[in-house]
Amino acid sequence: MSKSALDKDSDNFLNVLKLISDRMNGLMYAFRGTAGLVIQGLEMKMEDIDIVCSKDTAVASNTLFKDFLKEKVEYKISDKFKSYFGKFNIKGVLVEIYGDWQILDAKGVWSKIFDGSDRIKVKFRGEDFYVVPADTELLMFALMGRWSAFHKIKKQASSFLAGENSRSKIKI
């Protein structure tokens, strides 16, 4: 089954973001990846919603989103990542949770823990959402070796900063 692109202007995308934000209210989390960057005003193709959060928030997600559970949040280690990871299908949108996420870099060194603690609040379609700042996204994409995405983000973030309508604290 191939992933389908999410439309940033769809009511479903906004409703899923709001549902997640409402249920995670008061917890440590931030939208990241392409969805987080779209919320900040960048043009990116989205196929899912990624959330980086603390271990406690990740584990709590099993209860908070029990009706949408696809893969239970548990501590997992792969060749390139380790985190409290799980998947949910919320109103037809794949949502992936990464608690205390770490990335193995090209030198074989684990990154610092990403838990959403450096999040910023931005407005998107009239609503406030917590997102991972673009400079942290750049670091994550670099650590993952995703250089094509890294350069696309860097170019767009630079162009976005040059405009007068910046809606977030994009730093590069």
Q: What characteristics describe this protein?
A:
5-stranded mixed beta sheet, 28% strand, 172 residues, disordered C terminus, alpha+beta, two-stranded antiparallel ribbon, Beta Polymerase, domain 2, 5 helices, single chain
Outline the structure in words.
- This protein is α+β, with helices and mostly antiparallel strands.
- It has one domain: Beta Polymerase, domain 2 (2-Layer Sandwich), CATH 3.30.460.
- It is built from 5 helices and 7 strands.
- The strands form 2 sheets. The chain has a 5-stranded mixed beta sheet. A two-stranded antiparallel sheet has the order 6-7.
- Strand 4 and strand 5 (93-103) form a beta hairpin.
- The protein is globular and about 40 Å long.
- The N and C termini lie far apart (36 Å).
- The model is unreliable at 164-172 (pLDDT under 50).
- InterPro entries: NT_sf.
Residue runs with pLDDT of under 50 for 5 or more positions: 164-172
Order of helices and strands: HEHEHEEEEEHH
Question: How many strand units?
Answer: 7
The CATH top-level class label: Alpha Beta
Portion of residues in beta strands equals 25-35%
Mean pLDDT: 89
- Given the C-alpha coordinates, what overall shape results? globular
Distance between the termini: 36 Å
Q: From the alpha-carbon coordinates, what is the Rg to the nearest angstrom?
A: 15 Å
User: Biggest β-sheet, characterized?
Assistant: 5 strands, mixed
Structural class: alpha+beta
Number of helical segments with 4 or more residues: 5
CATH architecture descriptor:
2-Layer Sandwich
CATH topology: Beta Polymerase, domain 2
Relative helix content: 25-40%
